[in-house]
Amino acid sequence: MPLPAGFIDEMRLLLGEETDEFLAAMEKSPVVSVRLNPRKPGAEFPEGRGVRWCAGGVYLPERPSFTLDPLLHAGAYYVQDASSMIYYEVARRLLQLDGNPDRVSVLDLCAAPGGKTTAMIDALPDGSKVVANEYVGKRAAILRENISRWGYPDVTVTNRDSASFARDGGGFDIVAVDAPCSGEGMMRKDEKAREQWSPQLVADCSKLQREILGNAVEAVRPGGFLIYSTCTFNREENEENVRYAAEELGLTPIDLSFPEEWGIPRGIETPYPAYRFMPHRTEGEGLFLAVFRKPLQEGEEIEEEKPKISREIRRRVSVGKGKDKKELSPKGKQKEEVPEIEDILSVDFDRTRFPIVELTKEQAVNYLRREALVLPEGTPKGVVIVAYRGLLLGAAKNIGSRANNLYPKNRRILK
User: Fold this and answer.
1) Which of 38, 74, 256, 268 is the most buried (most CB within 10 A)?
2) By the 8 A CB rule, do 146 and 198 touch?
3) pLDDT: is 322 or 308 the higher one?
4) What is the spatial distance between Cα 48 and Cα 373, in angstroms, rounded to a whole number?
């Protein structure tokens, strides 16, 4: 499907003489990139090139079969567009601006599918608390799965409206709003983005973004930071919302001063610092980014406090902190503990609790398909944890001649 005519007209007004170069880039194949997990080392891409603004980011020359790589399911890396990896660098710089605290609290208000949340997590000191929220239920389920793979233990995944966080009050050191948008920056790899585009969609998204921004401000502690981003190009959802945040919400825009050699253009026709990832200027998809600080009121001081988290958040199971479930067993027999998949994938999982069995790649893929397993001779009977190249994948119950596959049905690979 060709790019919408109205979108092309808008881009000509926005970019002027750069438009033809931009339109040519929009018809090229997207670049492929992954981000390595520093807390789960093991994945290697020797043929790749580094992403300048992310320590673990790697550009790949072609797209491999990620689905059939057990290291992906173990959380050794995340398949992510390189532009979005800027969240790693932003979080790193905000920590520096805040005096490099021992730990911080972070709220990602629109977190699904989890790439930007995990990018920030990579820059955070251990012990930092993260809330990853997604309003849409189905997307929240995907978010939880991706967050659990990453293995950072101090994350809570929630499914709430942004207004509920505003009602809870402030307290978070960093609040991220990767806002729902018209998706112009995804038109290169998502046909649906081309099909759904219209000027009305742009207007509707801008209105929703301002509502979310207003709620997000209330969740930031005085002196804390707010990150705003979209994956679209128009000024209405981007620079105009930066103006709104600065002039109407009273936030202070922050100039991150990215190195010139990174090739990240500044915002268009705005006095405020903002950044645009454009496919004809940067290797990645379209992304807009701006960062703000919430000013202190007169006489107010920054106090170290925990964010006010409602009972609704507290009662949800945090990734890596779930309780063991009990496996059903025949009548009269003792039930056997089976750890939750979130616990197994967590980097703080106690590896001494169960025997760990190393699988070959073929065995690991079969396990992830939830097929029957035959474990090595000498494997103890009962619940064991299976691993690939030292990284944990999930649980199985060895009964001797074979093993029952306990990988969650909803996570099995179908390829």
Assistant:
1) 74
2) no
3) 308
4) 34
> Which residues does residue 390 pair with via DSSP β-bridges, in sequence order?
none
pLDDT(320) > 80? no
DSSP state of 16: G
Instruction: Confirm if 355 and 379 have CB atoms less than 8 A apart.
Output: yes
Torsion angle (degrees, nearest 10) of CA 104, 108, 114, 116: -70
* 217-227 pLDDT, tens digit each: 999 999 999 99
Q: How far apart are CA 92 and CA 122, in angstroms?
A: 9
Average pLDDT over residues 131-149: 97
Q: Where are the beta strands (DSSP E) in 165-253?
A: 172-178, 220-230, 252-253
Cα separation, 69 vs 67, in Å, equals: 6
Q: List Cα–Cα distances, 203 to 143, 144, 182, 236, 238, in angstroms.
A: 27, 30, 9, 8, 12
pLDDT tens profile 275-285: 999 999 999 99
Q: Can you state the percent helix, strand and coil of the chain, rounding each to 5?
A: 35, 20, 45
Per-residue confidence (pLDDT) for residue 322, from 0 to 100: 40
Token digits for 262? 């990174």
Higher-scoring residue by pLDDT: 390, 1: 390
Q: Are 144 and 189 in contact (CB under 8 A)?
A: no
Distances (CA, A) of 101 to 54, 294, 381, 413: 21, 18, 46, 40
The confidence band for 301, taking pLDDT boundaries of 50, 70 and 90, is low
What are the beta bridge partners of residue 230?
A: 288
Distance CA 357, CA 155 (A): 27
Is pLDDT larger for residue 2 or for residue 309?
A: 2
Percent of the chain with pLDDT over 70: 91
Q: Is residue 255 classed exposed, middle or buried when 0-12, 13-18 and 19+ CB atoms within 10 A define those classes?
A: exposed
Backbone φ and ψ of 367, nearest 5°: -60, -45
Catalogue the active-site residues: 231
SS (H, E, C) 137-183: HHHHHHHHHHHHHHCCCCEEEECCCHHHHHHHCCCEEEEEEECCCCC
